[in-house]
Structures are given as C-alpha cells and as structure tokens.
Specification:
The chain is 70% helix and 0% strand. It is mainly alpha-helical. The termini are far apart.
Length: 116
C-alpha cells in the first residue's frame, strides 16, 4: 500500500477488518476512539518535546526515531479512520469542507507567510 495508490476507503476497510477480527467493536465507540487519538497524538509529541527548531532535521536523519514517529502517525491514523467509520464521517468531504472554511477564515492575501 502506498499513498499514491490507496484510497481512504481501502484504509478504513483495513482498520475495520482488523477491529472486526478481534471483535473490538464494543470498545471502539466515539468516546474511546477520540481519547485514543489524543493519547497517540501526545505520544507523537513526546518525540519532539524538548527539541529546538534547529534540531528537528536530525529526527528525519535518525532511522530509529523515524520508525518510532512513523508508528505513532500510523496509530493516530488508525484511530482516526476507525472514528470516522464509527461516526459515518466521509473524511474526504469533511477535509475539503474544512479547507474551504479555512480559506475564508484565513485569506491567503492576508496570511501568506504568517500565522494568525
């Protein structure tokens, strides 16, 4: 599987199948899944917690650290996909709608090269 050839639906199915094979559906309710997303996001943040901006490139150059970061990103993605599936949220349209809303909120002419 690769980003250029895999659909969001295929990723959701991958996660849904994993959950179903273990009969974890009763535990994968919106509260537990949203909590799990936050926990995994915090675990990702730990890898960068005490780094200065000038040290960030070193993470990508360290194969062991990148493997750990990659796993945390995968954990977040898995829980997010499961959450979206459970809540019947179409991720593609939700993201597209949010980006349109953000474009209005943060016009490129006003925010180019700077943040809020």
């Amino acid at each position: 599987m690769h980003d250029q050839t895999t659909t969001v639906t295929e990723l959701m199915q991958l996660v849904d199948d994993f959950v179903a094979q273990r009969q974890w559906e009763p535990f994968h309710d919106p509260k537990n899944l949203s909590t799990s997303i936050a926990i995994e996001a915090a675990e990702l943040m730990e890898h960068f917690q005490w780094l200065r901006t000038d040290q960030l490139d070193a993470v990508q150059e360290d194969a062991k650290k990148m493997a750990q970061v990659r796993e945390e990103v995968a954990d977040i993605a898995a829980y997010l996909l499961s959450f979206a599936s459970t809540m019947e949220i179409d991720l593609s349209s939700a993201l597209a709608d949010k980006m349109k809303k953000n474009a209005v909120k943060y016009p490129k002419e006003e925010y180019r090269g700077r943040f809020g």
